[in-house]
Amino acid sequence: MTKAYFLTLVLFASVVTGLWVLPGCRNGSSGGVHDTATGGGVTTGGGATTGKSAGFVFKEKLSEYGFFKGRLADLVPSEGLTSYELVTPLFTDYALKDRFIALPTGKKGRYLSQGVMAFPDSTIIIKNFAYRNPAKQKIMIETRLLVKDPGDGAWKVMDYLWDSTQTDAVRHITGAKVPIILLDDKDNRISTVYQVPNTNDCKRCHSNNSILSPIGPKARNLNFVREGHTPNQLAEWDQKGIIEGLPALTQVAQLPDWKDSKHYTLEQRARAYLDVNCAHCHTQGGDALNTGLFLEYEQKDPQHLGILKSPVSAGGGAGGLNYDIMPGDAGHSILAYRMNSIEPGTAMPELARTVIHREAVKLIVDWINSMHEKK
Amino acid sequence: MRSNGSLLLIAAFCCMLFASCNGHEEKAGDEGYKTTLTFGPGQEAKIAEAFLSLKDSSVIRLAAGLYKFDNLSLAQLRHILISGEGAGKTILDFSSQSQGGEGIRVTDLKGFTIQNMTMQNSKGDLLKINKSENVVITNVHAIWEKADSSSGGYAIYPVLCKHVLIDSCVARGSSDAGIYVGQSDSAIVRHCNAFSNVAGCEIENTTHAEVYDNEFHDNTAGFLVFDLPGLSKRGGFVKAYRNNIHNNNIRNFAKAGSFGTAWGVGNASPGSGVIILATSNVEIYENQIKDNNSCSITIASGLAVDDKALEKVGDSYFPISKNISIHDNTVSMGNAFPQPAYEHHIGKILVGIEQQLIAQDASRKGKRLPFIMYDGISTNLLTHGAAANPDSLCIGQSGENMFVNADFLNIRTPAKWHPSTDMTPYRCK
After folding, report:
1. Chains A, B: CB contacts under 8 A, how many?
2. ipTM > 0.90 (yes/no)
3. Of A244, A278, A299, which residue sits at a domain end?
4. A105 and A191: one domain?
5. Which residue of A8, A18, A24, B315 pairs with B17 in a disulfide if CB–CB is 3.0 to 4.6 A?
6. Structural domain count of chain A
7. Among A343, A348, A317, residue whose Cα is nearest residue B175
8. Among partner residues B37, B107, B256, which is closest to A28 by beta-carbon distance?
9. Does A238 share its domain with A281?
């Protein structure tokens, strides 16, 4: 009798182990990985695979979330979803971006004077990327999700790639190259191969000291009046109960609008642009920490800002130039040179840009050239 | 009995499961890893996907053959092994790279080994490993088949890492350094071969590095140890021994613009064996340093290449090289500068020093620049002192024509400029 019990135990253990080993076996023998999970160890529909983070499960299709009502591509937000804008946005090949945030019912984010605001678990940030085709139609490319996983409190990323019929977007981790002809802000036709990031690309820009987080929703970059809205956007968020702890708006920092030359100086606009487009990597703890070039809006050290700073590891990417910024001489400044390139190994930012942002290059060139007198 | 029979059946089934798994998965060296994924040529899309969805404690095995990738990346993982079937057998080609700074990008891994493969022809760097710990790169050949300014910067490039071993690797064709260890701590480079690069091997802002039993040859410069300003840390405590550093005489093909490249490796003159720049606590001994025909060993301060170096002094940078010990190396040089040295801004200076020594002492006619060229810029400059050897250089080399203090501070005022071959103050005590 005892013997039988013992045998049963051993067998039970073997079965469990056998089943546990099976998925790995399948991957190994078929030469592919079908478990398309992100770092969080979650799979579609099946719940947690590892048992560690019984948390958020990314759905297979964008439509399954119910974020939008009506035709999906119209991006009409459902109840509980709030659209927002940034005063100075990241450039991505002249893409049209729609941003939304959804907080769990009854929960609020907390205002922070510096950095990204503190959002509760289960917050979802949605960013849709589209372009204008030569017929001036808005064509969807991809939708990126950032989710604060209640399983472990960590932010997770996922990309959804729109199908050719523009009816839905499907979960996609490997990145994609999408040949498109787009119109830029001045209706010039530009032919390019748009690069949809893979999940590691997402992590590169969104991680600081190994912790993944959103980049955009900082109070100072939300602190403005949106076109067609009356109150300030942060006040709107306050009224809607998205955030708490908002001080009087006069006490909230404001990032300059990089296009607004009426209210902001050339330097303010250039620094705001560099902050948003570069400083997620070019900062302490960021992906470009090794370069010593730090471009946060609040950075004051001329060496870190690149002024008469020799590059470290740019190699040929520096174009044979000596300094990141040569005051008064944008033509000999690596910063402007790399923004004005689309060559891999030279182009900056390294990711998510295949087209030159002409207006921004002009801004940075003008700024560097204006430094002449301060030299 | 009956129930026991069915249990036995289940047991047999389980054994079969294990058997089939083990047959596919376990290979020598995979012990201790939870999962092994095996791929062959033609499965590039699946491999890229596997890199992106990899779990901790995994092995990726790549069978022999040619693979074509845009780029690959690994991020935020623990205990990963990527293995080919051998250099020259498993070949990863990145000539179609369309985005990013490198062929393979590894970020934030704890426990990463890559081995037994060739990787080649990326637009940017070939293998960049950022912010990782316990990194082992073994028997990896990282090459650009065409060595010119269009080649990527670095072939093997760990940066901001801790505990790095680069063993039995080949680096070829880099427009910057073939093997480049930057801002790291505890690194070993051994049994490697670097050639046809601008720099064979560079140790930069890195502490506790040992470089031994390597061959660095036919580069612009063979081996460099230096610190740059404004970075996360200061380097030092670097030893290089038993290396064979020879025939580093090729043109500096780092991309040069209208200014000429006056930073980093652009400063390396063709014909340089070893360059020690703006760093401290370096020991170079028992190396073969032969036929590097401009300068066998250069010891210089950041001021030699950057007039503003003193303004950049801080916790992580001090431009004047200190505690440099050079002893028991076997050194020899050819009869003349390599032609490309005459076209290089530092090469021209070296030529000028050789000529100046002859001008000062006619009996030197026909003699080459001494093996060790020290720029002579010492902390006396800061203290206004006159100590003979304030920065504790120690030269333990016997033989003739070994040393010159090139008096860089006066190099622009010919009337005062007086390079000196007196090695007395710098002899190891």
Report:
1. 224
2. no
3. A244
4. yes
5. A18
6. 2
7. A317
8. B37
9. no
